[in-house]
Amino acid sequence: MDQKILSLAAEKTADKLQEFLQTLREGDLTNLLQNQAVKGKVAGALLRAIFKGSPCSEEAGTLRRRKIYTCCIQLVESGDLQKEIASEIIGLLMLEAHHFPGPLLVELANEFISAVREGSLVNGKSLELLPIILTALATKKENLAYGKGVLSGEECKKQLINTLCSGRWDQQYVIQLTSMFKDVPLTAEEVEFVVEKALSMFSKMNLQEIPPLVYQLLVLSSKGSRKSVLEGIIAFFSALDKQHNEEQSGDELLDVVTVPSGELRHVEGTIILHIVFAIKLDYELGRELVKHLKVGQQGDSNNNLSPFSIALLLSVTRIQRFQDQVLDLLKTSVVKSFKDLQLLQGSKFLQNLVPHRSYVSTMILEVVKNSVHSWDHVTQGLVELGFILMDSYGPKKVLDGKTIETSPSLSRMPNQHACKLGANILLETFKIHEMIRQEILEQVLNRVVTRASSPISHFLDLLSNIVMYAPLVLQSCSSKVTEAFDYLSFLPLRTVQRLLKAVQPLLKVSMSMRDCLILVLRKAMFANQLDARKSAVAGFLLLLKNFKVLGSLSSSQCSQSLSVSQVHVDVHSHYNSVANETFCLEIMDSLRRCLSQQADVRLMLYEGFYDVLRRNSQLANSVMQTLLSQLKQFYEPKPDLLPPLKLEACILTQGDKISLQEPLDYLLCCIQHCLAWYKNTVIPLQQGEEEEEEEEAFYKDLDDILESITNRMIKSELEDFELDKSADFSQSTSIGIKNNICAFLVMGVCEVLIEYNFSISSFSKNRFEDILSLFMCYKKLSDILNEKAGKAKTKTANKTNDSLLSMKFVSSLLTALFRDSIQSHQESLSVLRSSNEFMRYAVNVALQKVQQLKETGHVSGPDGQNPDKIFQNLCDITRVLLWRYTSIPTSVEESGKKEKGKSISLLCLEGLQKIFSAVQQFYQPKMQQFLRALDVTDKEGEEREDADVSVTQRTAFQIRQFQRSLLNLLSSQEEDFNSKEALLLVTVLTSLSKLLEPSSPQVIHPPRPPKVLGLQDALFCKSLMNLLFSLHVSYKSPVILLRDLSQDIHGHLGDIDQDVEVEKTNHFAIVNLRTAAPTVCLLVLSQAEKVLEEVDWLITKLKGQVSQETLSEEAPSQATLPNQPVEKAIIMQLGTLLTFFHELVQTALPSGSCVDTLLKDLCKMYTTLTALVRYYLQVCQSSGGIPKNMEKLVKLSGSHLTPLCYSFISYVQNKSKSLNYTGEKKEKPAAVATAMARVLRETKPIPNLIFAIEQYEKFLIHLSKKSKVNLMQHMKLSTSRDFKIKGNILDMVLREDGEDENEEGTASEHGGQNKEPAKKKRKK
């Protein structure tokens, strides 16, 4: 039969074929076709023949075709056919589909849909036919019966697609079904159906099947719905990430972890690649992505940024067109996130309302962590983002050329956080991705070398961390580092020191790099620029410190720790130590040459030698001999000659120019410290050994010389140095400059000898008498210099020189002076204690050291760069100062003797204030240790149980001590009140209060002073108020406090209407006539501004949430419920602020900054109210009207604020008018001009305020219409400010002006200006 059909089909006409086919029974044809296809015979030819004999023009032919289609589809689905035959059959069916009439196409399509919904498809091959059927259907113009109605072909297609998408899809055909739609012409609405269906299937599919589905969706998105596709993909993976993180951080007993981490990351990586590839082909998709993430940012940047979306954005940066846009978006997100965090941290009110969430910064670092799963497409974006953050938000240069050095605890500011995040991104990326290491290192070094003038400490820190992480890995990039060495002599000294310190671990691993550095340093040693020579010295000293010579003491005293994992080669093997010795001695040779260079270079050398010795004790001999020979050049060996030092030799005269050549005081200082170290460390170890005599000769020589200098310095008079009172100390003559230099040298030498004698004294009385004599010499010179400088009106001379005493010595000296109670020491210590001047000097030096620490992060002198030693000394000094201040109060001390200058107790307090802020700045993590050290009681036995006392409890104890002092001070007589001390006490309390836990019961109100006498001082009042606010904000919002204070201010200053008597409310004794304005007034206004800023932030957040909900079209009634507590809080805050402004607006404030600020803040208040009204405009339809408390707020603003604002404006204008008239008659034109300028400045914010009020009212009218609540019934509509020109008044004014011009030519323009406010007044 098949042969006959084929032969008939071969004829030209199809008539006979048709006749034959009609004779066959129903099942014959389908059976024949089945048999042929299954056997693998030529089913295609047979099918063609059947189609030829079944034209669609006849009904029978159409029906036959329909049956054949159904049969073929079942055949293909059965899976019994060979692949080629199945493909051929489908191909033929596709070709013939468009001949079908519409109704049959609908039937066929319905068959497919029901097969999909019932899940009866076996292999889905036949689905390839469905797009052709749907496309053919869309082309049919005639109306078709569908269901109960009649539809056109296009509408039928839409209905079919809708039915298909609303049904159930089998997991295994989702990809095929989605891909099928790309061949169907779809309208936007139909694309949306399909996309929604496919996205809803994500959660039901295996993870591995999602990337191909995403790919099909992206292909489909070219027809529309790009936004939905991207939103859906991002939302799904963000949720998956979140769930995955919760599982990992949650209970480890969970047996089922949904997805292994690696697999999830690989799938995400593939999807990101798919999306980036799609964006390259369709830029519209990229625009949609950026737009979607930008919109989410407006309300809350964390809402739709997630690790997945950030990784996606970073990958998109590889496309040139989107690079800047995306990086900019990420940069602003990061900073916005840190600003939000800062706002939240500063306000307990916000913390209670806003849940704590993860921040963009943590998400970015998570992306870095995830990128280990071969996300190479993300790394380039990460590196760019890291550098952009570091470049944009690094430390900035300030006026005097110093950079603002940031320390961990200070970096609470958003910019510093952002810079730190940039550095973390780069460091973590460096650790994970080898291929990018070279580039990161190169870029960091480029910035270090090329940005010499701007601060680059953050890049040097990053470099140091990179090197510490993997010195051996970096050997491959050593060429980059050695290239940077070539620029050393052109870089600033500070940069060179930090750069060399950062790369120092590399020098231990790479000999070639070390040799290269030495060559560069040797060249720099003889460069023209002074800085280059100083850099060379710094470099050589660093090398000496870090290359140990055999036999040196253990490095337990080493202050810079190298991590263990860091250097895997044994650099301290025997060979290396021998090599190091030759190498170090070579360097010592080079350094000796420096001793003939400028004073600055020598100074660096003297400051560095002590550290070298401490690290490399075998070099002691060489170093000490060098110092000894240097000292002999300036030492007078004859024992009876005075003075003992040749000061003339230390000064260089070149023509008229006189400069210091040898910093002799620093040389002696270096010798003294090295000698002390040598005696304490090396000599005890040599006791048992036989040593050569000459080895120790230098140490005895040095001791003798210092002894001799001490004795002869005590005998010397100032005349011996030619530095008595009659000498010339002016800075303008060469003799004066020379005398100044000599004076400073002598004072320095005295200080060094004081420390030397104290260190060897063993508390002998004679030594202490010597110390006092040396101090008297120092004091005389210091007094002369101060006196001369005072006359010359230049106080700078005395400020320049730092004290040469070491911090360790200062702490020992203070402890001896104030705390030493050992019986045998009392007699000798009484010598020093008898001199009040000396004790004051000791405390002053301690203050100077702490100030130096605050400004630079380290102190001068030995161990000045070692944070641990500094911390130890700080603890000791603080303990003594605290004891001295609390046991001998200022009042007791001052009543005894009236001396010039501050009392010792006051100096102690000043020291404590500086130390508390320095410790918070540099030693935040060691706070517990620091506070424990302050415990003055002897606590040997209590150490163990002491350890668990919290920082808050310890702080509270200290706070109580200072509170007591403040109370005593405030209770004192008015003439005894010391405002400086009060101010310092409040500053101390403020810095201590920062250590308290906000939730702890110790957050106490500052006590209300029992008397008002001492509270007239504005500065003290200001700092006490600031403390009050900072404490208040840490546990609740300060609005009620503001309201009380505003009532006090109103009571003291009176009302703008002079006839009104205001009752005085004494909530706070600190508010009185002298402090109410401007001090307290400006403080409360700035605080109100902060509250408005917080409220504004909350409103913006709510608006963002609303706009996102409308985008995602969720049921809004449920969506707004969680916002109710926030809305309520906003309305409460604004209500209380309204009463605060209600008081201030009625207060007769003095013109000036108070009025100005109040007008601006009122303007802000109305802007915030308007923002709230606009928020309710957005939500009022969905939430069903506006809440009752909002209506109350509007009513309150109408009755209590707006009318009063207008009367306050009149008050301000009347003031300026009266000022104008009095000014015109009596004062000189210049005075009138300045007064007028002030008036204009004050009245400038008035139009802004009026505009803000009117905007508020305008939006209220809108809200009234929308919410069907008449909100305007409480509003008195404001005066219309349009005006007509009254001719008669104008003539009169012009005539007056004419007369004025004749009288005085200058005053007329001011007069013209003045009339404007007056005219405005008349319109009211």
TrEMBL record:
<dbReference type="Pfam" id="PF14676">
    <property type="entry name" value="FANCI_S2"/>
</dbReference>
<protein>
    <submittedName>
        <fullName>FA complementation group I</fullName>
    </submittedName>
</protein>
<dbReference type="Pfam" id="PF14674">
    <property type="entry name" value="FANCI_S1-cap"/>
</dbReference>
<dbReference type="GO" id="GO:0006281">
    <property type="term" value="P:DNA repair"/>
</dbReference>
<feature type="domain" description="FANCI solenoid 1 cap">
    <location>
        <begin position="1"/>
        <end position="53"/>
    </location>
</feature>
<feature type="domain" description="FANCI solenoid 1">
    <location>
        <begin position="64"/>
        <end position="280"/>
    </location>
</feature>
<feature type="compositionally biased region" description="Acidic residues">
    <location>
        <begin position="1297"/>
        <end position="1306"/>
    </location>
</feature>
<feature type="region of interest" description="Disordered">
    <location>
        <begin position="1296"/>
        <end position="1324"/>
    </location>
</feature>
<dbReference type="InterPro" id="IPR029313">
    <property type="entry name" value="FANCI_S3"/>
</dbReference>
<dbReference type="InterPro" id="IPR029305">
    <property type="entry name" value="FANCI_S1-cap"/>
</dbReference>
<dbReference type="Pfam" id="PF14679">
    <property type="entry name" value="FANCI_HD1"/>
</dbReference>
<dbReference type="Pfam" id="PF14677">
    <property type="entry name" value="FANCI_S3"/>
</dbReference>
<dbReference type="Pfam" id="PF14675">
    <property type="entry name" value="FANCI_S1"/>
</dbReference>
<dbReference type="InterPro" id="IPR029315">
    <property type="entry name" value="FANCI_S2"/>
</dbReference>
<dbReference type="InterPro" id="IPR029308">
    <property type="entry name" value="FANCI_S1"/>
</dbReference>
<dbReference type="Pfam" id="PF14680">
    <property type="entry name" value="FANCI_HD2"/>
</dbReference>
<dbReference type="Pfam" id="PF14678">
    <property type="entry name" value="FANCI_S4"/>
</dbReference>
<dbReference type="InterPro" id="IPR029312">
    <property type="entry name" value="FANCI_HD2"/>
</dbReference>
<feature type="domain" description="FANCI helical">
    <location>
        <begin position="555"/>
        <end position="785"/>
    </location>
</feature>
<dbReference type="InterPro" id="IPR029310">
    <property type="entry name" value="FANCI_HD1"/>
</dbReference>
<feature type="domain" description="FANCI solenoid 4">
    <location>
        <begin position="1041"/>
        <end position="1290"/>
    </location>
</feature>
<feature type="domain" description="FANCI solenoid 2">
    <location>
        <begin position="378"/>
        <end position="541"/>
    </location>
</feature>
<feature type="domain" description="FANCI helical">
    <location>
        <begin position="284"/>
        <end position="370"/>
    </location>
</feature>
<dbReference type="InterPro" id="IPR029314">
    <property type="entry name" value="FANCI_S4"/>
</dbReference>
<feature type="domain" description="FANCI solenoid 3">
    <location>
        <begin position="804"/>
        <end position="1004"/>
    </location>
</feature>
<dbReference type="InterPro" id="IPR026171">
    <property type="entry name" value="FANCI"/>
</dbReference>
